[in-house]
Amino acid sequence: MSKPDGTLLVNTGRPHGAGIHGVNPPIVRASTFVFDTLTAFEDASKTPFDVPFYGRVGTPTTFAFEAAMAELEGGHRAIATSSGVSAISAVLLGFMADGGHLLVVDTVYEPVRRFCTRMLARMGVETTFYDPAIGAEIADLIRDDTRLIYMESPGSGTFDVLDVPAIVAAAKARAVPTAIDNTWATPLFFRPLEHGVDVSIHAATKYIVGHSDAMLGVITTNAAVHDAVRRATQDLGACAGIEEVNLGLRGLRTLDVRLRRHAASAMQLAQWLQAQPGVARVLHPALPDCPGHAFWARDFDGAAGLFSVELTGGADAARQFIDALQLFRIGFSWGGFESLVLPVHLENRALPRWANTGALVRLQVGLEDPDDLQRDLAQALAVIAP
Ligand SMILES: *Cc1c(COP(=O)(O)O)cnc(C)c1O
Predict the structure, then answer these.
(1) pLDDT for position 21
(2) Which residue from 53, 201, 256, 319 has the least number of CB within 10 angstroms?
(3) 83 CB under 6 A from ligand 1?
(4) Do 233 and 285 fall within a single domain?
(5) CA-proximal residue: ligand 1, atom 6 (nearest)
């Protein structure tokens, strides 16, 4: 498959061929579709993910977004869900509902860790959190009852990049399926299914929607595991709202230009920050200080606009720095047009290796003029390292 690019983003998931078409597919708001005969209704029920049947199963707007994501990720099919977390929990339940052993990277997005240690634990699932640097040695952690290996690359907060091909090879040797959170890279910068991963998940809330105005998740699978994942999303009723799906589809049209601007601005700021007093380390996958940088250089086509900075002054300095920022606003999420900042919390991590990591601040670099953002960072650093 050729790499997804601006041309594919503009053309995918749109009506083509004969007839009169709006540039965008219509927004079909419906719970119910009606049929002239019972036979027509029964025929539709055989392919409910391709023709309109019932709103929870999908409308033509949903199908257009799902088709676009499947094409961009090089997958068999994609499934839209109500949020990134609903996409991830549906995948985990789809593989783990009978209990057994789950391997999850220790840099996982925090609500996913909670899903494992709360809900899945109560269902009898045992989760082992593995070191993001594990690579091929994950083979030593795979047990006879291991049902899934879950990855996130780069990981949340510390941006450790995984050796995905090595982990996938070890998983395949034991016939264990793999899933990954690909939110940071988007299909433009990393395509997990090309590396043999079975399931790629996005919080489309972030770069795909891109404007901080909708919650949306999407799961892309290969053919082998599709039915298992689809059953889970259907059993959970985890469907996406139609307006949200449309915002996801609209976001895709501009993803290439937005992401390249996020990427270039973040790179400028990360490199500049490296040389500033008060900064101990910049954890940005395209910079050598970031654990797994070599895997990023080998496997990815770009680095997105979210990274962390380790400050020398400790937690108090991090608080002062965050409060001093003006253009970087304090708030959850990322991937929208606006710059954001938050402290990174490592206290829930399972492995001891994080104990020596200093105070981390995560920056989401938005679409503002990067020189303005740099001035903002400079004035806030001057507060803590005068
Ligand atoms: C935000 C986020 C999610 C969750 O997405 P929601 O749409 O907020 O539920 C999942 N994974 C990563 C890496 C995220 O940053």
Answers:
(1) 79
(2) 319
(3) yes
(4) no
(5) 84
For the question of residue 46 being annotated catalytic, the response is no
Ligand 1 pocket check for 215: Cβ under 6 Å: yes
Q: Let me know if 206 is a catalytic residue.
A: yes
CB 156 near ligand 1, within 6 Å: yes
Let me know if residue 35 belongs to a domain.
yes
Same domain, 202 and 303: no
Q: What's 349's domain CATH number? A: 3.90.1150.10
What's the chain's average pLDDT? 96
> What is the total residue count of the chain?
386
CA distances from 310 to 61, 110, 133, 299, 372 (A): 43, 19, 19, 25, 21
Condensed to tens digits (0 to 9), the pLDDT of residues 332-347 reads 999 999 999 999 999 9
| Residue whose CB lies within 8 A of the most ligand 1 atoms, among 88, 184, 206, 245, for a mutation test | 206
Q: Using the predicted structure, report yes or no on whether residue 1 has a pLDDT greater than 80.
A: no
Task: Report yes or no on 341 lying in a domain.
Answer: yes
Confidence of residue 19 (pLDDT cuts 50, 70, 90): confident
- Domain stops at, among 232, 251, 270: 251
Residue 357 has pLDDT above 80, yes or no: yes
**Same structural domain for residues 20 and 145?**
yes
What is the band of 22 on the pLDDT scale with cuts at 50, 70, 90? Answer: confident
Look-up of token digits 């993803």 = 255
Q: Which pTM value belongs to this model?
A: 0.97
pLDDT for the residue numbered 18: 64
| CA proximity to 202, closest of 85, 307, 315 | 85
Tell me the CA end-to-end span of the chain in Å, nearest whole number.
52
**Ligand 1 pocket member 85 (CB < 6 A):** yes
Count of domains for the chain: 2
What is residue 356's predicted lDDT score, i.e. its pLDDT? Answer: 87
**Residue owning tokens 């990134």:** 84
Domain limits for position 172: 6-251
Q: How far is CA 201 from CA 179, 271, 355, in A?
A: 8, 30, 29
